């Protein structure tokens, strides 16, 4: 159990693997009440079984559909009576050079990484306004600070997440709502599986093998932000593996 986390109602969007899954496990240990969303229900069922969560704590959710994101947030409120934290963490990273004209990958990144975050904000904000409390945490990336060849669209979506979060931070001042951007470097997860170009996937997977740190790093950073006293608003945390250069 952890002070500042215990009994908080936390919705994690994109909780079925990688960073979101590690966060769910950590916050469960710290005594949070969880509601987990993602498309792969089988993964969510397995996590819920392992953590002995009720079946109401998981919901199949595709963040490209605002109604499904709303249903996930509504589930938290109908089941627990409130929502204290939403972590908009769903994302994918199909890197490739722009010259490869990967229209489907570009659209998917914009729909999931960018519009999915907006839908999460839209779903949680009315409840948090009413409560006059809440915490909206959005997963950006080192790519929200730096662009490299092959990462232009991904970096654009992650930069947008930071810009939206900062706009949100200023807008929600009257409602006592906190906002946090988490910008991780290379962290072990299934993210590279979303790369559709085999040569790019090979290079990035090698980079992750050489560089990435465990997903618990993300979980502990998020737990730090959540556990602060209510009058302390951690606005952004950028972290990397110690060995990561860029
Ligand atoms: N790993 C890193 O090095 C790193 C670094 C910086 C930022 N990030 C960011 O961290 C976040 C989590 O990624 P990860 O690294 O943990 O990769 P991951 O293991 O592939 O997890 C991605 C999560 O997003 C969910 N997701 C993807 N598309 C979705 C959709 N349409 N609707 C709902 N959920 C969806 C996935 O669930 P389903 O497939 O079951 O829907 C999964 O739970 C992403 O935003 C990523 O950009 C990761």
What can you see in these coordinates?
- This protein is of the alpha/beta class and about 250 residues long.
- The protein has one domain: Rossmann fold (3-Layer(aba) Sandwich), CATH 3.40.50.720.
- Helix content is about 45%, strand content about 15%.
- The chain is built from seven helices and seven strands, in the order βαβαβαβαβαβααβ.
- Strands 3-2-1-4-5-6-7 form a seven-stranded parallel beta sheet, with helices on both faces.
- β4 (about 85-90), α4 and β5 (about 135-140) form a beta-alpha-beta unit.
- α1 packs across α7 (about 215-225).
- The protein starts with 8 loop residues before the first strand and ends in a 7-residue tail after the last strand.
- The structure holds NADP nicotinamide-adenine-dinucleotide phosphate.
- NADP nicotinamide-adenine-dinucleotide phosphate (NAP) binds near residues 38, 61, 89, 141 and 187.
Query: How many structural domains are formed by the residues?
Result: 1
In the predicted model, the low-confidence regions spanning at least 5 consecutive residues are none
- In CATH, the topology is named Rossmann fold
Q: How would you state the average pLDDT, rounded?
A: 98
Largest sheet: 7 strands, parallel
| The CATH architecture | 3-Layer(aba) Sandwich
**Percent range of helical residues:** 40-55%
> CATH H-level name... which superfamily?
NAD(P)-binding Rossmann-like Domain
- Annotation, overall tally of beta strands: 7
Strand order of the largest sheet: 3-2-1-4-5-6-7
The hetero molecules present are: NADP nicotinamide-adenine-dinucleotide phosphate
Strand content: 5-15%
Q: Assign the structural class, choosing from mainly alpha, mainly beta, alpha/beta, alpha+beta, or little secondary structure.
A: alpha/beta
Top CATH class = Alpha Beta
Counted by DSSP, the helix tally is 7
The rounded Rg comes to 17 Å
The quaternary state of the protein chains shown equals single chain
Distance between the termini: 36 Å
Domain Ketoreductase: 8-190
Family: Belongs to the short-chain dehydrogenases/reductases (SDR) family.
Keywords: Oxidoreductase
GO molecular function: oxidoreductase activity, acting on the CH-OH group of donors, NAD or NADP as acceptor
């Amino acid at each position: 159990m952890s002070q500042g986390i215990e009994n908080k109602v936390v919705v994690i969007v994109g909780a079925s693997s990688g960073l979101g899954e590690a966060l769910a496990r950590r916050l469960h240990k710290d005594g949070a009440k969880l509601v987990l969303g993602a498309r792969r229900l089988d993964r969510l069922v397995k996590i819920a079984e392992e953590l002995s969560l009720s079946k109401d704590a998981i919901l199949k959710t595709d963040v490209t559909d605002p109604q499904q994101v709303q249903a996930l947030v509504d589930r938290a409120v109908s089941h627990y009576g409130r929502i204290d934290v939403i972590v908009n963490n769903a994302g994918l990273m199909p890197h490739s050079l722009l010259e490869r004209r990967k229209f489907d990958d570009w659209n998917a990144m914009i729909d999931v990484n960018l519009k999915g975050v907006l839908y999460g904000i839209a779903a949680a904000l009315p409840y948090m306004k009413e409560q006059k409390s809440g915490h909206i945490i959005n997963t950006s990336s080192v790519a929200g600070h730096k662009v490299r060849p092959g990462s232009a669209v991904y970096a654009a979506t992650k930069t947008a997440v930071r810009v939206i979060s900062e706009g949100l931070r200023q807008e929600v001042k009257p409602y006592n709502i906190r906002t946090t951007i988490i910008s991780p470097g290379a962290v072990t997860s299934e993210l590279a599986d979303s790369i559709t170009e085999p040569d790019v996937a090979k290079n990035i997977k090698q980079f992750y093998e050489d560089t990435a740190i465990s997903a618990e790093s993300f979980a502990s950073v998020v737990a730090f932000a959540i556990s602060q006293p209510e009058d302390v608003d951690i606005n952004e945390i950028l972290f990397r593996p110690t060995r990561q250069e860029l």
